[in-house]
Design brief:
Helix content of chain A: 40-55%
Number of strands of chain B: 5
Order of helices and strands of chain A: EHEHEEHHHHHHHH
Structural class of chain A: alpha+beta
Order of helices and strands of chain B: EHEEEEHHHHHHHHH
Oligomer: heterodimer
Strand order of the largest sheet of chain B: 2-3-1-4-5
Distance between the termini of chain B: 12 Å
Strand content of chain B: 5-15%
Largest interface: A-B, 17 and 19 residues
Number of helices of chain A: 10
Shape of chain B: globular
Structural class of chain B: alpha/beta
Largest sheet of chain B: 5 strands, mixed
Radius of gyration of chain B: 20 Å
Number of helices of chain B: 10
Radius of gyration of chain A: 18 Å
Largest sheet of chain A: 4 strands, mixed
Distance between the termini of chain A: 18 Å
Shape of chain A: globular
Strand content of chain A: 5-15%
Number of strands of chain A: 4
């Protein structure tokens, strides 16, 4: 598993060669929560992979041939097939590779995970807008909206009476929503889950997962990255290297 | 007349009973494009429509079946008249401007479509409902077996995401008597992206040479281009026009094609804020 902490490729860089047989490549960025989803699934399923980090503030021209939207994560296999959109990459990995299935076989349980995913969908843009505003404008409106969204997730756990969003063991939906809760921890915003006790317990349970803990971001590096990223600094993506 | 031709339920209506065994229920509205997706999948999978007021038990001793409006209630004898083992579906149309209070127990915001099965399990978001049906019911699979091809169809869906909003905005703008040149330009651009895909693939349908899930997920908005008054948006996209023609040949699409005059009648009433809009064209 190479490249997770490699310098990113930017404009003017040479396009990488084909993916070696037996590996799958993920185009990523060390601090991207969407790419984190894919890395978690790769880790959880024990899939042999290589990582190429992309400078998202200075994207290589060749990268748009991989994903016309120019976003990470992107998967590329040794047949040259390319898959993008984080949730789609995760589902593809679960289907294409053997071992523990992260998505349930039962059609209704699978649909439930997708409905929870939709329920969660407002959190990423809210959290990002909260981070952009901090110390600048009044962000109490955003705080309130975040509380509302977390309460929805709390309700799911309360109704299900299970530790995880998919049941008594960790599954796909938990990995899909985890990266933003990791942000709360690294930025010491744990108080945001004070009023949602089940969500708090879920976070503690997640921290014990081997894939989660092995990919946990260093808080200092993350804060350093965030400062530079919000200033549109071209070096942000390689902070700490 | 399409097969879901029943009056809508609105505020003050009695909640329907549980869904009988062997049936799946769709909460819908006859003109909604999102619900249309789910109806297409039900049709394509051979999950046949059961009109709520028919095909129930004719046994004289059986008390529980239908009220006069044909609303399903618990079937006491547990049988459907002439029941086969084939799966069926029923449709309950919802008055979207006057939603029944009970409907919010089916969906927190009262959206359609929603599926409800005989275990009382609820599935919503049109794409999730369509995938659920494909997974849960046997027979013809609408999503490909190959996981890369499946991923491709889901990526194509992402490419489509601006189309519903843009077509709706065009409709609203035109109906308010304003020009929508900018919106049409934006829509044409989206159609160009889809045209490029068909050109690159060199296939008739978006999933290959045969119709599949992604085609059904796109279709409802293309069926509405004409009645929305924006059919000229595909003037510069020949492959897309060929796809539209091929789709109109598909038995599933044909079975659910909405009559243009009825649709126009609905739109006229809808934009006049008439609460009876959703039942336009129903004879009963």
């Amino acid at each position: 598993m190479s490249g997770g902490s490699a310098r990113s490729l930017g404009k003017g860089s040479a396009p990488p060669g084909p993916v070696p047989e037996g590996l799958i490549r993920v185009y990523s960025m060390r601090f991207c929560p969407f790419a984190k989803r894919t890395l978690l699934v790769l880790k959880a399923k024990g899939i042999g992979h290589e990582v190429i980090n992309i400078n998202l503030k200075n994207k290589p021209e060749w990268f748009f041939k991989k994903n016309p939207f120019g976003l990470v994560p992107v998967l590329e296999n040794s047949q040259g097939q390319v898959i993008y959109e984080s949730a789609i990459t995760c589902e593809y990995l679960d289907e294409a590779y053997p071992g523990k299935k992260l998505l349930p076989d039962d059609p209704y349980e699978k649909a439930c995970q997708k409905m929870v995913f939709e329920l969660f969908s407002k959190v990423p843009p809210l959290l990002l807008s909260f981070l952009r505003r901090q110390n600048k404008e009044d962000c109490s409106g955003v705080k309130e909206e975040l509380h509302k969204e977390f309460s929805k997730l709390e309700e799911v756990l309360t109704n299900k009476k299970t530790t995880f969003f998919g049941g008594s063991s960790l599954s796909m939906i938990d990995y899909l929503i985890w990266p933003w809760f990791e942000w709360l921890i690294t930025l010491e915003l744990n108080e945001y889950v004070d009023h949602t006790p089940n969500l708090k317990l879920w976070m503690e349970a997640m921290m014990k997962d081997p894939a989660v803990s092995s990919l946990f971001i260093d808080p200092k590096a993350f804060r350093g990255f965030l400062d530079l990223y919000l200033q549109n600094n071209l070096e942000a993506c390689d902070y700490g290297l | 007349m399409t097969d879901d031709a029943t009056r809508t339920l609105g505020k003050g209506s009695a909640p329907p009973g549980p869904v009988p065994e062997g049936l799946i229920r769709l909460y819908s509205m006859r003109f909604c494009p999102y619900a249309h997706r789910t109806r297409l999948v039900l049709q394509a999978k051979g999950i046949r429509y059961t009109p709520v007021q028919k095909e129930f038990c004719k046994t004289s001793s059986c008390k529980g079946h239908l009220d006069l409006e044909g609303r399903a209630t618990l079937l006491e004898c547990g049988r459907l008249d002439g029941a086969s083992s084939k799966p069926r579906h029923e449709v309950i149309n919802i008055n979207l401007r006057n939603k029944p209070e009970w409907y919010f127990t089916k969906h927190p915001f009262g959206h359609i479509p929603v599926l409800e099965n005989s275990k009382g399990q609820l599935i919503y978001e049109s794409v999730i409902a369509c995938e659920y049906l494909d997974d849960a019911y046997p027979g013809r699979k609408l999503y490909p077996y190959d996981c890369y091809e499946r991923a491709r169809q889901k990526m194509l869906l992402e490419l489509f995401y601006k189309v519903p909003h843009l077509t709706k905005e065009c409709l609203v703008t035109l109906r308010c008597g304003r020009g929508c040149a900018d919106l049409k330009l934006a829509l044409r651009q989206e159609f160009c992206n889809l045209e490029e895909i068909l050109g690159y693939q060199n296939t008739i349908f978006f999933g290959g040479d045969c119709i599949s899930m992604i085609d059904y997920l796109f279709w409802p908005w293309f069926e509405r281009l004409d009645v929305y008054g924006i059919a000229d948006c595909v003037n510069h996209t020949p492959a897309l026009r060929l796809w539209i023609a091929a789709m109109k040949q598909d038995p599933t699409v044909c079975a659910l094609l909405i009559d243009k005059n009825i649709f126009l009648g609905f739109l006229n009433l809808y934009f006049q804020n008439n609460p009876d809009a959703f039942d336009y064209g129903l004879s009963c």
